[in-house]
Amino acid sequence: MSPMIPVGKPLLGEEERAAVDRVLRSGMIAQGPEVAAFETEFAEALVAGRRCVAVGSGTAGLHLGLLAAGVGPGDEVVVPSFTFAATANAVALTGATPVFADIDPVTYCLDPAAAEAAVTPRTVGIMPVHLYGHPADMTALGAVAQRHGLALFEDAAQAHGATWRGSPVGSFGRFGMFSLYPTKNMTAGEGGMVSAADEDLARAVRLLRNQGMERRYENEVVGFNCRMTDLHAAIGRVQLGRLPEWTERRQKNAAFLDDNLHGVVTPTVVDGATHVYHQYTVRVPGDRDAFVAALAEHGVGSGVYYPVPVHRLASFGLDLDLPVTERAAREVVSLPVHPGLTEAELEQVVSAVNAVAGAGA
User: How far is CA 13 from CA 9, 23, 141, 182, 239, in A?
Assistant: First the structure.
């Protein structure tokens, strides 16, 4: 039997090795010139020149961004429950309360009407997730925020290069956060990047990531150690340069799947959106677990993101009426779409999905 086709695959090669060797030879391994260069290049390439601050993880980026924006105890931030736990965790870590709202059934992103219904006098912000690489409706969410005097924050962990009505994600809210974890569309090995709307917020994130100081031993606030190393930044710089090529391949792979899959509900890209397909997520009929198991028997890996809505995790333990979220959590499966796929592997994915869906697994 041929090897299992993985649902995701980080692409790391000789360029990344050379970049790491360059840093090791330099002797400057902690936050230094590679980090500064990466921040500048990321800003120019992905967020229309907004100020960018590199941090140690995506979760740290959300946490520090919220703290820098003044979110804290007594506040509420509206978030989706159909996402990775880090979205809500970051809010809770500030001392604020994440308030969960339902999602749009087509894009899987935060539903603007549901977000507005969740607003209370304690609400200070709305934080949509550009899930699976599809942007949230930032026009409608921006209108909700404006009507209620709220801030917008963007969890763009999965959406490097996605756009909404011609503008890149990460350029709408007070800040945006991009994850650089190994499974993302580009990686630094680990890390996150915060795009800030203004210099005051960017400086606050820089202080918070480095024990509250920009100059050594001149601590201005109580901060954290959330720095990115030059080793990680060097990898990220190489990956950033290859991101446009990889995004195009993801989109071409998705188009092939769109044209050839049967028996499942394929992703929809709404008008005004550019989807970068961090995941290619379908809805399946019948028993989702049986579907996943049958795909594996055909040598095709898959992923279920996310089988338990965040509000129902033990860490939050809430009983809420979020029917669209609950249905998605029962039905979705993500298929291989990454740029490392060969034509033969894409055809194998199609053949497996169509056979399993046709058999009613």
Answer: 12, 16, 40, 13, 10
Structure tokens given for 288: 């989702």
Looking at the fold, whether 225 and 76 belong to one and the same domain comes out as: yes
Q: Is 7 inside any structural domain?
A: no
CB 90 within 8 A of CB 66: yes
List strand residue ranges (DSSP E) for the chain, in order. 51-55, 76-80, 97-101, 123-126, 151-155, 163-164, 167-168, 175-179, 192-196, 273-274, 280-283, 332-335
Mean of pLDDT values over 208-230 = 95
Specify if 5 maps to a domain: no
Task: Find where tokens 């790491």 sit.
Answer: 20
- Among the candidates 238, 264, 292, a domain finishes at 238
Q: At what angle do helices 58-68 and 86-93 cross, to 10 degrees?
A: 40
Question: Do 295 and 199 share a domain, yes or no?
Answer: no
Q: Say how many domains are in the chain.
A: 2
- For 299-332, write each residue's pLDDT tens digit: 999 999 999 999 999 999 999 999 999 999 999 9
For residue 204, is it within any domain? yes
Residues 87 and 201 in one domain: yes
Query: Which of 238, 270, 303 finishes a domain?
Result: 238
Percent of the chain with pLDDT over 70: 99
Domain of residue 272, residue span: 243-359
Specify the long-range contacts of residues 74-78, CB closer than 8 Å, at least 24 apart. 74/122, 75/122, 75/123, 75/124, 75/125, 76/120, 76/122, 76/123, 76/124, 77/123, 77/124, 77/125, 77/126, 77/127, 77/153, 78/110, 78/115, 78/118, 78/119, 78/123, 78/125, 78/126, 78/127
